[in-house]
């Protein structure tokens, strides 16, 4: 219907015909795509003819529109076919599943950001648990925040999320939509910066459900407060960061930082150029991934080695202010549980509960260790880059001042100099100075709007210095267990041995060899999760370990022979035995760490 058609219907409205007219009117508004000004004109006419409140009409219209949008999204999703279910079953049995998901998002056009891709994908899957993970995706304008989210959503069926467009936040409250076990997705560029939206988002972050307090007129004509609740659990994925930077909001989310360096920008441009030169667009069938999501069991997952992680955390040099770890640790364990759910076809179940393994810890570790460390140490890659720039500029100025007999204490670095050194805008420099100062990386003296910045002696300036979670190898040693996993970022197969770690690249691209995985799992079942009377004796456990570690403890020759055998099983060849990280290897080479 056109505006004129609807206007004729509204002109003939009467109070007694209003209930029958509204559904037809809203249907015409929705399908006609009228302008907001035209909608308002119709509502004002309807008020004049029937006495109905325009505010009430807006509320009912917002609810109708949100409900139709949600229905349209779910109807657009094609039904899951038997072929898709079979493909999903094969995915769930693949040890390289998470690596394949990260690679698929890359095929959809996301350049780099592998860590962010994987963590965001696991966060979306966490909606299947009782504690969905919320994520703030941060970065400069045009850094690809929303593109990353939207391409990751391609692997999630419509019923797993709800995208809020630029409509009123009240539509979210009044919509006839089930938000349980879903993520609410908000994009900054949609103009969702109103206090109304931020209130809903903060409530969602703090309580895991949507609450909205409104004032409505009762049948008796009095105004009364009413609280509307949309039950959860509901998670949040957003690039809407400006109004959510308060500490209380930050501690309830993972913060992902986009790579906005010059080098990465050039890689993105190169990828775009190559794609245009080929003239082909990525074609990815989302059906198997949607079927995989639907097939995830909603069962309890236990993490038997969680106490061991906590013990290793206690042994580390951590900052004094560690209160946010109380929330972060629980979120990380949720990621471990999601990894177990993702690989449920290859996990042991006890009394109806899935048991997470060292493999699940390793997968979650490689995706979340750095974001978690940044959160606890309150430092971002940008703040570190700024601190390094302060050190470099300060050293150059001190050297120059020495020839002029200017004392070192009088030398400071200023925002303008940092902007020139880093090739950042001044506002970008000022944005990260505060965080670098809070993390103890720089010292700032303020004189009005002028900032005098100096390096802090002994402050760590490499991200590796900010650690939190124990590496998988260290946890394996603590537990006295081994295992194998496919690295989610590189696709290499890594085997946790005692006391060695072997990592083998597949001999052929695209293949992920698994080193006798079934035997490894059988040997290294998590005995700590069993009742005491069922645990193996010390002699049995010692024998089990020796089968994994072999006589390498007494003979370097035996160790090398065993590791060569493992490498052969992995489809590669032994590269060398090293005391620390080796340079990048060729695809058919194996790195072994002692």
TrEMBL record:
<feature type="region of interest" description="Disordered">
    <location>
        <begin position="518"/>
        <end position="559"/>
    </location>
</feature>
<feature type="compositionally biased region" description="Basic and acidic residues">
    <location>
        <begin position="528"/>
        <end position="546"/>
    </location>
</feature>
<protein>
    <recommendedName>
        <fullName>DNA primase</fullName>
    </recommendedName>
</protein>
